[in-house]
Amino acid sequence: MASDEKSAAAFRTIGEVSAATGVAPHVLRYWEARFPQLKPVTRAGNRRYYRPEDVALVQRIASLLQHEGYTLAGVQKLLKAKPAVAAPPDDLRAIRELLARALAES
Fold it and tell me: Taking every annotated instance into account, which residue ranges of this chain make up the domain HTH merR-type (predicted)?
């Protein structure tokens, strides 16, 4: 029997994203024009499908605008200066290098 719940990695429609985030569909479409980082996958008929990282970005933008008092221009500058995905910390780089050396030696 199939579950009504989607997996965390599943794509979401604009209606599902709107319901989950509280952001109206017309606002989501507007944000796509204002934030180049927000690019949902489009299929036939221009239907939008949001990846989990798109939903996280919508939540971040909404929080910055609604709760932290940023303007659209302020959020645009913030997202340009601080991308959502940060570089791994130095200790993770060191572990990665250690594993790469171990694999090379074997």
Answer: 13-81
